[in-house]
Amino acid sequence: MSTQLSNTSFKFIALGAGNEVGRSCHILQYKGKTIMLDAGVHPAYQGMASLPFYDDFDLSTVDILLISHFHLDHAASLPYVMQRTNFKGRVFMTHPTKAIYRWLLRDFVRVTSIGENSILDKDDNLYTDEDLVESFDKIETIDYHSTVDVNGIKFTAFHAGHVLGAAMFQIEIAGLRVLFTGDYSRELDRHLNSAEVPPLPSDVLIVESTFGTATHEPRLNREKKLTQVIHSTVSKGGRVLMPVFALGRAQEIMLILEEYWTQHAEDLGGSQVPIYYASDLARKCMNVFQTYVNMMNDDIRKKFRDSQTNPFIFKHISYLKNLDEFQDFGPSVMLASPGMLQSGISRELLEKWCPEEKNLVLVTGYSVEGTMAKYIMLEPETIPAANNPDITIPRRCQVEEISFAAHVDFQENLEFIEKINATNIILVHGESNPMGRLKSALLSNFSSLKGTPGEVHVYNPRNSVDVVLEYKGIKIARALGNIVDEIQKDNIENLKVEDVTKQEAAAEIKDANEDEVIVSGILVSDEKNFDLNLVSLTDLREHHTELSATVLKERQTIAVNCKPELVYWHISQMFGDVTVLEDSANVSIKPDETNIAKKEEEHADISDDILVMQIMGDVQVTVKSNLATVEWTQGLINDTIADSIVAILMSVDSAPASVKMSSKSCSHEHGHDHEEGEADVDITHASKIQQIVKLFKEQFGESFVLSLEDKKEDAKTPEAIKGKITIGKNIADINFSEMRIEQCNSNPLKGRIESIMSIGSDLVSTLC
Amino acid sequence: MAYKLQVLKQPADVPVGTLIRFETVTVLLDPAWSDTKVSYEDCIKFWSSIIPDVDIILFSQSTADFLGAYPLLYNNFLPHFITRIHVYATLPITNLGRVTCIDQYTSAGVTGPYTSNKLDIEDIEKAFDHITALKYSQTVDLRSRYDGLSMTAYNAGYTPGSSIWCISNYSEKLLYLRNWNHTKSTILNAAALLDSSGKPLSALFRPSSVLTSFDRFGSSAPLKRRTRTFNDTLRKSLAGGGSLIIPCEVGGNFLELLAMTHNYLYEKRHNGKYPNVPILFVSYAKGRTVTYGQSMLEWLSSVVIKHWEGRKGQSPFDMNDIMKLVSPKELAKQKGSAICFVSEVESCVTETLKNMSKLSHVTILLTSNKKSTIPALNDMLLKWNENSTAKTVEGAEIKYTATTELEVATLTPLKDDTLEEFNKTIDERRQKRKDDEVQLRKEAKVANMYSNDFQGAPGQNQGSSDNTGADGNQSFVDDSDDDDDDDNLIDILKGKGTKKQIQEIPMDTIISSNTSIKGQTFQFRPKKTKIDEYGTFTNLEQLIPPTEDEDKDSHSSSSQKRSVEESVEDMAGGRDRGKRSKRSKKDIKKEKEEEERRKQAKIDFDSIDYLDAKASPCERTIQQVTTALSCQVIFLNLENIVDQRSATAIWPSMKPRRVLLIGSEQSQNEHVVGVLSKRDIDIVNIPYNEDIEFNTTIKAMDISIDPELDQLLRWQKIGEAHTVAHVVGRLVKETPTNKLTPGRSKLVLKPLETHSKVHTSGTLSIGDVRLTELRRKLLDLSHKAEFKGEGTLVVDGQVAVRKVNDGQTVIDGFPSDIFDIVKSSVTEMLAKV
Q1: Which of A450, A528, B128, B321 could potentially form a cystine with B98 if both were Cys, beta carbons 3.0 to 4.6 Å apart?
Q2: Which Gene3D superfamilies has this protein been placed in (chain B) (predicted)?
C-alpha cells in the first residue's frame, strides 16, 4: 500500500471521443481509484463498430461511471457496459438525464434493430430491451451541486448548459480535482443554465473541442435568421423540415418558435401554419420537461409558480407520434427526430419533401461526419433512399444550416478555460483538425506562462493513448482529540490560527520559527476516502474504532539443565541492566564463592527454585526447574535482546566458562602466572619461526641453510635466527627474527623470498 | 471561538426561532409565527429588535411553525433583506413554504381580498423568491466572509426538503435538526444522519453541539403497519358512502398522506373493486402543493419514482383527474363518499367543520399528536386520548359529539365607495412598495459591488436575478410577465451582441469551370503557417469576429417584412388547399379543443388569482358560531418522526459533545434525556429569550504535512482500509508568502532537524490479530494450524498463539523456525509505531 500512497500519477485514457466526435468514453485513474466518464456510441457506425474501445481497458476495475448527458454519443452504450461486460461499478446521472435516457434508449434499441436486421446478424444488436430495463434500475441519480462521496471519490455535478440534465462533473480524489465538461454551452438560453464555473479550482480540465477554433454567430442573429428563413419558406407555401434530436435543443427551438408564432400571429395568417413536433417520444419527453422545471435556469425556475407559468405548455405546437396522423397539406414547420437524418421520421420526411424546390431542410444541430445530415449540407444532386441504397431521390429543396448546437465556440471555450485556470488541459470530443487547431491556439494563448510553475499543458490524445500527469498535492491532516490539547497546552497563543493581514504578515514570518511545537502522533489515512487524521497514540482507539492497538507478546521456552545462578551469571555478564524480580534461591546475591557453595549444599535437593529477571527493561526471563522462559513484547530492540538471551540460554550448559565456574578446583595459587605468560609468548614466537623455516626448506631444499650455530653462546639474549640461501652465484641472508632480508645480490631471488616470507607470516600468525 | 445561543419565544410556550450569534455573524433559524395567538402587529414589534442583527436566515422545514413569520419579516424589514440578510433553504421548502404561508396568511386575513389585508400574495411570493434554493449536501461556503462559516443541508426525512443543518466554522460543528426521521417513509428517504450501512455519516459525525428537542417522537409502529392501518381506516370510513376528512399541514406531511391515499385508490381501482372516490382538497393555495409535488420528484426516494413509473409512467402526484379542489362551502355539495384533505389553518378547518354536518358518516382522521393551533381539533385529540384505554391502539375510532363555538369569518363584499377606497389604498400601497424596493435595490447594488466575493458560491447570483424578478413584477397582469422577461433576455443578448458580431464563415469553396485541374482537386490552398514550438502559431485576433453594422441588421429585417406581405397570397392559396380535407380538420380541431380544455383545467387547478387583493374584496368579520359536531374521530400518528427508542440509540452513536435542547424543559422527554446523560453527553436546556454563551474547546485543527516530512513517513497498511504512519515533527505556523493575497496562516508540520526525539519505545502495534486469518495464512504455507480450547491456535503442535484480551496477543513456543514463521505472519497484520 505504501507504493500506492506515494503514487502521484494521474492517468487519463480516452476509449472514445479522442480526436473524434462520438462514442464519448474516458477513463481517469488516480490513487487506485478508477472513474469512467460517459459511455456513448458513434452515430456514424453500427453495432459493435460504434462502441468505444472497451477491449482496451479492464472495465471491472471501474469504481464509478458518470454520464454527462443523455445524448446517444454520451450514453447509448451504457446498457452494453452494464449488462454485457464485467463492469461492476456504480453509475450516476442527473435526474432529468435518467428520465429522458429511458425513452431515448428504448427508441435507440428499436431503431437499430429495425435498421440493421436485414443486413447483419440479429446478435449484432448491442443490447436488448431487457438489458435496458435491467440496467435502468441500477442507475443512481444525483442532483446538481450535491456532492456525492463514493469510497473517497467525491464528485459534484454542475450545470453544463447544452441540454436539460447535462452536467459537468468536478471529481476530487485525495485533493486532486478534475473537471469534466462533457458537452457544454456558455450561451444564454431560454430554458437552461449556462455552464457554471465551479467555486473550487480544478487541477485538470477535460474539455470538449467540438467547434475547435470556430466562432458562433451571436445567438440573437441566429434566432433572427432562423425565424426569417422559416417565415419566408412557409409564406411561399413551402414546408420546413428541421431534423432535431427528440430532446434537448428541440425544446429550445420550440420555445423560439412558440414565441415567434405568438408575436407574429397576424403575419402568419392567424396561426394557420402549424408547427409539429414529430417524435414518438414527443409527449413523454415534454412531460419530463414539464416535471424538471427546477433543473432549468433561474429565470424559468423563479417564474414557475403554478401550471400557468410552466413554459413547456405550448399553444402553437402540436405533437405527432408518427406520420400516420399527419395530414400533409400546405405549409408547415416540422421538427422531427432523429437529428442526423439517418432513419426514422425525419428521414422519411426528407425523402418525401426533398424533390420540391420550395421546401427547406434546416439543420440546427451538430452533424457528425458520415451522417445524412452532414451529407445533405453539401447540397448533393440526389440522396440515397434509406430503405434501399440503390434508389436515389433527387434533391431540389433548399438546405440551410443554422447551428443551435449548444456547444461552446472558441471564444466561449477560451474564456471558460481561462476561468477554470487548470494547468493541465485535455481536449476531447472534437474532430482531429479543429482539436489540433484549438490546441495550438490555447498554447499560443498561454505561451506567456511557459517555464513558470503555472505553465499550461494541453493534450489531445487519440483513442486508447494514455496521458499520465504527475500530481503532488500538499497533504493536510486533521488533528483530532488529545493531540490538539497537547499542541495548545504548549503554545496556545502563537499557534492559534488567525487571519493575517498584510501588515502583520512580515512580522509573523520572523517569529514563526520560534513558535514551534514538537508533535508526535499517528497519521491515519483512510484508504477509502483519503481522510488523513493525526491522532495521538493514546486516543487512537477513540477516533478509529476499527483500529486497535495490539501488544504482541512472545514467549520462548528452553530447557536448561544448569543451576539458576549460572544463568544469572551469564546474563549479568552479558547485560548491564538486569533487575531481579523474584529469586527464591538467592542466586543473584554477589558471587561470594563460599556463600554459593554453601547455598548449593543447602538447596541441592530442592528443584523448584524460581529466578525471574528483567533484562534491559522489557525482556523477562524466568528460570524454573530446568526450564527457562523468555518473555518479551515485540519490538526491534526487544527482539534482538531476546535473541541473544536465547542464544546464551542454549549454550549455557556446555559453555567452557560454565564448566570453569562450576568446577571448584579453580581456587589455587596463581603466583607465577606472569612469567609463564612471557615464556609462552617466546615459545610461540620461536615455533612460528620454525614453521616459516620449514617452508623455506621445502622451497629451496639444499640451497637453504639455517645458521643457528652462532647463538649457542648467549642463550639468554634472544639472538637473531638467520638463514642463508645459496643458488649459484646468488646469495641471500635472511634474518627470521626480524623477518627481513639482510642481503641479497639477485633481485629475482629477493622478490621470491619476500613473497614466501609474506605467505609464511600469513600462515603462521593468524589474526592476533 | 465562542458563540451565543438564544431561543426565541412569544407568549405561547413554543419556540419561534433560534438565534446563533458567532463573533461576526448572526444566524436565525426557523422564525415562526402563530397567527392565532399573536397579532400581526405584535409580531412585527417582537422581531423589530431582532432582525437588525440577523445576517443569515435558514429554514429547516416547510410548516408554519418553522417559517410562518418569514413573509412578514421580509416585507416589513425589506431594507435589511435587500442589503444584507441572505436566506437559505432547500428548494422544496421554498416551494412548500410559499403554499404554507399563503394558506396561513389568508386564514389570518392578512392577505387575500379582505379589508384586513396587509400583504399581497405577490409580497409572499417575493419573500420566497428571495430565498437561495439549495440542494442537499450543497455547501454554502461563506468562509471568506464570515470567519470560516459554512452551512450544508442534509436530508432530515420528515417532509420533502426538510433539512438537518450542519453549521460549521473553523472550530465548531453545530447540527440543527428539529423533526427528523431515521427510516424511509412512503415518499422520502431516511434522514442522512446514518449512511446506508447504518454508520454515522462522516460529515455529521462528532458534532460539537446538536441543537434539537426531545419533545416529539413518532409512532413506534413500523411504517408498513401504519400504512396498513391507514388503508383500513380509508376502507372503513368510506364504506357505505361515508366521508373522511383529514386535516393536515400543506407544508407538512400532506404530500405523504396524499401519496398514500393515491396508492391505496390506485390499487383498489386497479383491482376493479372500487368506484371512483374523489379526493377533495380544501386549501387557499388550491392545487399548488400538488403542482410543486410533481416538479420535485428528484427530492423523493427513488423507490417511489420507480414504483410509479411502473404504473404508466406516472408520478404519485399526477392526480389532476381524481383530485378536486373545493372551497369549504362547495364541500357541502359533495354527494357520496369522498376523501377530503383540509389545510390545517384555522379558517379552512372551522369552515369545513361547520359544513361537515351536511355530509353523512363523517370520520375525521387526525394524523399528528402535535398540539394543534385549532381548538376544535385539539379538543378531538384530547377526547380521543381520554377515551382510549390501554387496549385501544392507534387507528381506533371513537364517537365524538360536542357543541363547539367555532370562529367563522363572514365575508361581506365591498361596494361602491368603500370598494373604490380600498382599491385606492391597495394601489397606493403597491406603488409605494415598488418605489421603495427600486430605491433600495439601487442602493444595494452599490453596496453589493463591494461584496462581490460573496457571489462566488454556486446558485448565489442572487443579486442579478432578483433584479429581473423585480422588473417582472411591476405589473400584476401575468401575461405581460413573459414579454418583460424576454425583453430582458434580448437586452442582455444585445449587450453581448455589441461585443460579438456576425461573422460570415466561409463554408464551401466554389469551383468554377475555369479553375485549373489542380485547383479542382486541391480545393484548399493552405497558407504557409507559422510554426513555433507549440505547433501552429495562432493569432487570437483572427478568431474573434470583426464588428458588424447595426444598420444592416435592421434593414434586412424590414425588407423581410416586405417579402412577407408579398407572400400573403401564397399563404391564402395554401389555405385553400387545406379546405379539401375539412373533415379531418374538424377532427384535428376537436382534438385541439380537447387539448385546450385540458390545458385550461391544468391552469385552473392551481391558479390563485382569486386571492388577489383587488379580486372582489370583502369585509372580513369573525363571528362565533355554535355548531353541534357529530362524527367519528380516529387518531393515527402518521408523522415521519423518529421514535423514542431509535433516537436514544442513534444519538450516542453520533458522539455529540453536547446536546442543546430547544423548547421548555418540561416538554422534553425525560427518558431520552436520562439515557443520553448516562452516555456522558452534556445536555443543556436552553431557557427562552436568554443569551447563553458557549465556549469552544477546539478539538480539531488542520495541519498540513510538509512534503519533506511526507517523504520520511513510513506507511504501513492495516486491514483493508487504512494505512498508518508514525509521525514526529515540529509544528510551525506559516504565513502566506504572497502578500498581495493575505490568506490564513496555516500550521505546517515539518521534519525535525535533529532526530533525537524520534526514538520511541516501539512496543505498541496497531491493528488487530485475527486468528482465523492467521490460521488460513499458515495453512497456505502448509503448516498444521488448529484451534485448541479457549481460542488458542496451535501450529504444528509447537507454537501456540493466544489472545489474552482485546489488546494482547501471545506467541508461545520453543525457539525454532516455525516460531519465526508464526511470528512474522502475526507481525504482518500489524503496523508498528
Answers
A1: B128
A2: 3.40.50.10890, Ribonuclease Z/Hydroxyacylglutathione hydrolase-like
Mutation site, A8, A266, A284, A552, interface B, largest B CB count within 10 A: A552
Using DSSP, state whether B818 is helix, strand or coil: helix
Nearest Cα to B466, choosing from B81, B143, B47, B775? B81
Q: Is the pLDDT of residue A387 over 90?
A: no
pLDDT tier at B580, thresholds 50, 70, 90 = very low
Three-state SS sequence of B157-215: CCCCCCEEEEEECCCCEEEECCCCCCCCCCCCCCCCCECCCCCECCCCCCCCEEEECCC
- The end-to-end CA distance of chain B, in Å, is 34
Whole-prediction pTM: 0.73
Cβ–Cβ below 8 Å for A440 and B606: no
Give every CB contact of residue B651 below 8 A, 6+ residues apart in sequence.
B210, B659, B672, B676, B679, B681
B721/A554 Cβ within 8 A: no
Instruction: Cell numbers for B104, please give them.
Output: 396561513
Residue type, B376: A
Average of per-residue pLDDT across A30-43: 90
Q: Tell me if residue A722 falls in helix, strand or coil.
A: strand
Is B162 within 8 Å of B249 (Cβ atoms)?
no
Residue labelled with grid coordinates 410543486? B292
Interface test with B, best of A409, A550, A639, A650 (most B CBs within 10 A): A550
CA-based angle B767:B769:B773, to the nearest 5? 125
Q: Is the pLDDT of residue B698 over 70?
A: no
> Region A266-287: what's the mean pLDDT?
76
Beta strand B785-787 with B765-766 is unpaired
Over residues B573-582, the mean pLDDT reads 45
Q: Are A137 and A101 in contact (CB under 8 A)?
A: no
Percent of chain A whose pLDDT exceeds 90:
17
- Using alpha carbons, list the distances in angstroms from residue A470 to A2, A176, A394: 17, 11, 57
Residue A443 at interface with chain B, using a CB cutoff of 8 Å: yes
Contact A518 B494 (CB under 8 A): no
Annotated active-site residue A407? The verdict is: yes
Instruction: Give this complex's ipTM.
Output: 0.73
Say yes or no: B795 contacts chain A, CB-CB below 8 A: no
Confirm if A13 and A463 have CB atoms less than 8 A apart.
no
From the list A443, A524, A549, the residue facing B535 with the nearest CB is A443
Q: What residues form DSSP beta bridges with A467?
A: A12
**Stretch B177-185: mean pLDDT:** 89
For residue A196, give the DSSP letter: P
Q: For an interface test with A, which of B568, B571, B579, B653 has the most A Cβ atoms less than 10 Å from its Cβ?
A: B571
User: What backbone phi and psi angles, to 5 degrees, belong to A166?
Assistant: -65, 135
Q: Which of A69, A95, A216, A407 is catalytic?
A: A407
Asked if A547 has any chain B CB less than 8 Å from its own CB, the reply is yes
Residues present in chain A in total: 768
Q: What is the pLDDT of residues A333-356, one digit of tens each?
A: 998 887 778 778 888 888 889 888
Distance CA A626, CA A271 (A): 113
Partner-chain residue, chosen from B472, B503, B535, that has the shortest CB–CB distance to A217: B503
Cell numbers for A344? 426514422
Question: Cα dist. B356→B146, B280, B281, B401, B629 in Å?
Answer: 54, 13, 14, 13, 8
Mean pLDDT for all residues in chain A: 79
**How large is the greatest C-alpha to C-alpha distance in chain A, in angstroms?**
154
Chain B residues with beta carbon closer than 8 angstroms to that of A400? none
Q: Are strands A382-384 and B831-832 parallel, antiparallel or unpaired?
A: unpaired
Rounded CA gap, B318 and B304, in Å? 13
List the single residue in B with minimal CA-CA distance to A482. Answer: B699
Nearest chain B residue to A221 by CA distance is B502
